[in-house]
Amino acid sequence: xxxxxxxxxxxxxxxxxxxxxxxxxxxxxxxxxxxxxxxxxxxxxxxxxxxxxxxxxxxxxxxxxxxxxxxxxxxxxxxxxxxxxxxxxxxxxxxxxxxxxxxxxxxxxxxxxxxxxxxxxxxxxxxxxxxxxxxxxxxxxxxxxxxxxxxxxxxxxxxxxxxxxxxxxxxxxxxxxxxxxxxxxxxxxxxxxxxxxxxxxxxxxxxxx
Length: 209
Prior knowledge:
Blueprint: E1 10-12, H1 13-20, H2 24-33, E2 38-40, E3 46-49, H3 50-57, E4 81-85, H4 89-99, E5 107-111, H5 114-123, E6 128-131, H6 140-148, E7 157-162, H7 166-171, E8 180-183, H8 188-199, H9 202-205
Helix pairs in contact: 1-2
């Protein structure tokens, strides 16, 4: 009688990290935030539902991020790296056109949804993250709450650019402390000022070893 292979309905945090291409710590953070579904065994070990991992890997109706210009290595040291998370394709093009003209010639990553952004941020954190709040699927509020507790984001300056007013933001739970909120239309002059402050940090002024 031929044996039928049965797919496990769960995996360890390390297996989930390997499948998602992120660290074990990031998987644990996503479990705690509810992005991944899991439970603890009697021995205190986490088991992650395979369905939640598969859903994150193959989420429907989520296209790939808009590609950055070629021949630019992602997030290289001593060069400002900027990620923009915005679900309006026209605004993403506007961001790309304006940020590309900044004098520090930053590396730009454009992402049109929060889930894809979290996957990328789990692999490597940019120096500056610009995010919308009102997005389809997972919104910016949920994404920022996940990132707020992530040690890997400690060197990332986060800025929110939104069409929501203060009352609407407050009604949705607000954003974590320390994140500057800018109103749309986008103030690229303010964003450039923030970016200039980022590259003036000591870690950018150190010469490569």
